[in-house]
Write a structure and sequence with these properties.
The complex is a heterodimer of chains A (273) and B (612).
Chain A (H helix, E strand, L loop, with lengths): L1 H26 L9 H11 L3 E2 L2 H22 L4 H21 L3 H32 L4 H4 L10 H15 L10 H4 L9 H24 L5 H21 L5 H25 L1
Helix pairs in contact in A: 1-3, 1-9, 1-10, 2-9, 3-4, 3-9, 4-5, 5-7, 5-11, 7-9, 7-11, 9-10
Chain B lengths: L1 H20 L4 H21 L5 E3 L5 H21 L3 H18 L9 E3 L1 H28 L3 H21 L5 H19 L5 H32 L4 H7 L4 H15 L7 H5 L5 H10 L4 H13 L3 H21 L5 H22 L2 H32 L10 H4 L1 H13 L6 H15 L3 H29 L15 H13 L3 H17 L6 E3 L2 E4 L2 E4 H20 L6 E2 L22 H23 L3
Antiparallel strand pairs in B: 1-2, 3-4, 4-5
Helix pairs in contact in B: 1-2, 1-6, 2-5, 2-6, 3-4, 3-7, 4-8, 5-6, 5-12, 5-16, 5-21, 6-7, 7-8, 8-10, 10-13, 10-14, 10-24, 12-16, 13-15, 14-15, 14-20, 14-24, 15-16, 15-20, 16-18, 16-19, 16-21, 16-22, 18-20, 18-21, 19-20
Classes of the chains: A mainly alpha (273), B mainly alpha (612).
């Protein structure tokens, strides 16, 4: 099962992204592309004439994709949650390094914003992991999935993660890192053709990663976990379609004053009660 | 064993005399001393069977005289430079010394070499010696005056001897002497360049560390007056009611040596000195006195209010120093702030005193020492060979000096991400910390979570500058300086494969000794198991391939037959450039943190007096 999930991860992620695009379109009263559109994009991109700024930059995109896959597989194999979160950080940092390595203003600005976003999001992920420990007695995903659901005892932690989700997925209102209208995609701008494919697919894996985290709140009850993940998916889409982008420093402020405080309160409650 | 200890204690001093008397061969003597020290410390660790003890009471009087001579020297400095603080503190210290003489003490072992000492020997002698070897080359470019070169090397070499003694003495009066000697070494070395700035910074280092000396003497006074003993091991076992007050004073000395806020200016000022000084004093050796002291008293601190306050001071320094570093563009300053920050984490983990946090602290001590020594040595090369001080001017360096740049990048990765030692420390801290229920520990975990992400931000924005590529043509790199940093880099990379057996063996053994109970961790080649989590071998391999191998391959491989394009610039033809991101936290954050920490220092003493 773990093997199957890990191997199929990019395909699952692609479908998820396809569904997301369809739903976004429906929310905007458009017909929307077919569910398989992400894969069509993928093939079309691969078919284009490849162009690179320099080889190092292009390769770092590939390594970023592999790292995102590894982070996901740590989760799917029931590994330690903190280790998975650190691998997630590792994969993002590789993309940031790639972004900095080209002499492009947009790419470097994007990399910097990506870093600042991490500074707001990472502590929330870590506090989420600690709250899982407090309610299930382990940091290991395999044990969390056999423990009773922790959604009722850590509602605040769930809310915190929900607020952080748009940031993790680079969706409005927290999408300053790749703001298309402003810095034309940030770190992604200098990737093209096949090399953009890798960055594109890595985003699908990231989606799977964060929704798996949400799923963990269900514990042994996969129905609850699934329902929570679907709920979170809708909330994120709704926010994406109905909010305007906030400036990156406001994003840090908002995330700290809302999500971090909630996640912290959740842990303090867990310790006290 | 005895012979090896003799080498570790005395060889540095003989070598220093040799260097001073035969100035022409200063470099060669230093080089051989360094190799001997490395070998001796490793052999001593391997041949260790039981604690080695030695009583040398006949040295007490000569040592007291040395103490007074040293204080007299400090007082003269204070008098001639019209620095009232130095003068006043020297007099206070002398008064304390005379007070101490009024009390008698039982006989005991002055020198006790235990597992913790041997652990520190490894760090001091191996990393320190590599820096010595580097210094031999460096000092030739620093000054052409051969006698000044010899003095520099002699102080550095002798300093290693002082450190070896400092981690081996059990007699607190002697500990004071060596503590003051490290203060003297920092005063000399920071003021080595002899300009107004280094003189001023040297004096700041002097008086701040003298406060630490006073605290240490106060601790000695408490012990001698109440318990009639000067032996730390005895105090810790029979301390009773006064134990807390003793640990409070002892910890204050440690925190000042470890440059915790508000005493951080002395370490930041050390940047004025030649780079080997920063490397040897302020990354791998001198400042490690702080966590070493706290580790020594950590069993007594566990669960006390004093321990909690010490941890809080560490937490504040950890978070605030990391945030303050975000406004700096001077490379050495960034490193110095990050040292203060990580020292805060070490002090925090040591003062919690649980088996897992002590183990995390030891991981941090060793790997931070290795990484920082390497980074500082690289900073020296940047300054001497490429005349670069600011991270804004490193663009394109990756073409000119690929090895140097790779080492710097590796250095930063090794203090933030898996599979390197510092990551494991953080992992253990989170999982171990979550395992202790208690509001204070929870609060500390928040500090750790935000502080480490601030450090990650700092490291990656700096790494971002170093990978920044422009159209500089590659040229042949000058390897003359790189031997020592390369060895440390290889060690960091190679060791990451053996980290799980090392944590299950070496670190577990040493941490178990410190807390005198078995650390609940097990590690073999296939992974590390904590009570609530597990890290698999394939995680380590994956991280190693992703961070250690893949980026290097990416740098080597050149894609053939693929068109190169210029970056997108919105159709504009003008040159654009993006610099790094600087963040100046509101000015009063530093002030508030300093004031709060200063208040917490007083609180430590108060709580100690109230025996809480």
């Amino acid at each position: 099962m773990s093997w199957l999930l890990t191997l199929l991860a990019p395909i699952l992620g692609g479908f998820l992204y396809g569904i997301e695009r369809k739903l976004t379109a429906r929310m905007q009263s458009r017909k929307g592309p077919p569910i398989l559109q992400p894969f069509f994009d993928l093939f079309k991109l691969a078919d284009k004439r490849p162009m690179v700024v320099h080889s190092y930059h292009a390769f770092m995109g590939i390594i970023h994709f592999v790292a995102a896959w590894v982070a996901l597989s740590v989760l799917f194999f029931g590994g330690d949650l903190l280790v998975a979160i650190f691998f997630h950080l590792l994969s993002t940092s590789l993309l940031i390094v790639a972004g900095y390595s080209v002499k492009s203003t947009y790419s470097r600005l994007g990399a910097t914003r990506e870093l600042i976003a991490i500074a707001a999001l990472e502590p929330i992920l870590i506090l989420t992991a600690i709250s899982f420990y407090l309610h299930t007695g382990s940091f290991e995903v395999s044990k969390i999935l056999t423990a009773p659901t922790s959604i009722f005892t850590s509602v605040l932690g769930f809310l915190a993660l929900l607020i952080a989700l748009p940031g993790l997925l680079k969706k409005s209102p927290f999408d300053a890192a790749e703001a298309h209208q402003e810095i034309v995609g940030g770190v992604e701008i200098e990737f093209s053709g096949f090399f953009y494919d890798t960055v594109y697919a890595a985003k699908w894996l990231d989606m799977l990663f964060v929704f798996t985290l949400v799923f963990l709140f269900g514990g042994s009850s996969f129905v609850v976990g699934g329902a929570l993940a679907v709920f979170a998916f809708f909330v994120v889409l709704l926010a994406d379609n109905s909010t305007a982008r906030v400036r990156y420093c406001d994003m840090v402020r908002l995330l700290y004053s809302l999500a971090f405080v909630l996640a912290g309160a959740n842990i303090i409650l867990g310790v006290v009660l | 064993m005895q012979e090896l200890l003799l080498i570790l204690f005395l060889l540095p001093f003989f070598a220093a005399v040799g260097v001073l008397s035969v100035k022409r061969y200063a470099g060669i003597i230093t080089f051989f001393t360094a190799t001997f020290l490395m070998a001796a410390s490793s052999l001593a660790y391997l041949s260790f069977e039981s604690s080695f003890t030695l009583s040398l009471s006949y040295l007490s009087v000569p040592f007291l005289v040395t103490d007074l001579v040293l204080l007299g020297y400090f007082a003269t400095i204070g008098y001639t430079s019209r620095n009232k603080k130095i003068l006043f503190l020297s007099i206070v210290q002398a008064a304390f010394l005379f007070l101490l003489e009024n009390f008698s003490s039982r006989e005991g072992y002055d020198i006790v070499v235990d597992k913790l000492s041997l652990f520190m020997f490894l760090l001091i002698n191996i990393v320190g010696s590599l820096i010595l070897i580097y210094a031999v080359r460096y000092i030739k470019d620093e000054t052409s005056d051969i006698s000044k070169q010899a003095v520099f090397l002699a102080i550095l070499t002798a300093f290693l001897g002082v450190m070896n003694l400092l981690v081996s003495v059990d007699n607190i009066e002697w500990l004071f002497l060596f503590f003051e000697m490290t203060t003297l070494a920092s005063f000399w070395l920071i003021g080595f360049r002899d300009d107004a700035e280094s003189q001023e910074n040297a004096r700041i280092a002097l008086w701040m560390n003298q406060i630490g000396g006073v605290a240490l003497l106060a601790a000695a006074l408490v012990a001698k007056a109440e318990l009639h003993t000067v032996y730390i091991s005895e105090i810790l076992t029979h301390g009773g009611e006064t134990l807390i007050l003793f640990t409070a004073f002892f910890a204050v000395a440690a925190l000042i040596k470890g440059a915790q806020m508000p005493f951080s200016p002395w370490l930041l000022g050390a940047m004025a000195a030649p780079t080997p000084v920063s490397a040897i004093l302020h990354s791998s050796t001198m400042v490690k006195i702080a966590p070493y002291f706290i580790l020594k008293i950590s069993p007594a601190l566990a669960g006390t209010a004093v321990g909690g306050v010490i941890a809080l001071i560490g937490a504040i320094s950890f978070l605030v120093s990391a945030a303050l570093a975000l406004r700096e563009e001077n490379f050495k300053k960034i490193l110095a702030y990050s040292t203060i920050s990580l020292l805060g984490l070490m002090i925090l983990t040591a003062s919690l005193g649980t088996p897992l946090s002590v183990l995390a602290c030891m991981l941090l001590i060793l790997f931070h020492g290795v990484s920082k020594a390497m980074l500082f040595m690289c900073a020296g090369v940047l300054e001497k060979k490429y005349h670069i001080k600011s991270i804004e001017s490193v663009e394109g360096l990756i073409n000119k000096a690929p090895i140097l740049t790779s080492l710097i990048i590796l250095g930063f990765l090794s203090i933030s991400l898996p599979p390197f030692g510092v990551f494991f420390a953080k992992w253990i801290v989170y999982e171990g910390g979550a395992g202790i229920s208690g509001l204070i520990v929870t609060l500390l975990l928040f500090f750790i979570a935000v502080g480490s992400v601030a450090l990650t931000l700092l490291y990656f924005k700096t790494v971002g500058r170093f990978v920044a590529n422009d159209d500089t043509k590659s040229s042949k790199e000058d390897y003359s300086y790189l031997a020592s940093p390369l060895i440390l880099g290889m060690f960091l990379l190679g060791f990451s494969f053996f980290i799980s057996p090392a944590i299950g063996g070496f670190f577990k053994e040493n941490a178990s000794f410190v807390v005198s109970s078995v650390v609940p961790i097990s590690g073999d080649f296939w992974g590390i198991t904590l009570p609530f989590g597990r890290l698999e071998f394939w995680h380590i391999v994956a991280a190693f391939l992703l961070l250690g191998v893949a980026p290097l391959l990416a740098a080597k491989i050149r894609l053939k037959g693929i068109d190169k394009v210029k970056p997108y610039s919105c159709g504009e033809k003008i040159e654009t450039s993006a610099y790094s991101f600087y963040f100046d936290p509101a000015k009063n954050i530093e002030k508030v943190a300093n004031t709060v920490s200063a208040a917490l220092f007083l609180l430590i003493i108060l709580l100690g007096a109230l025996n809480l």
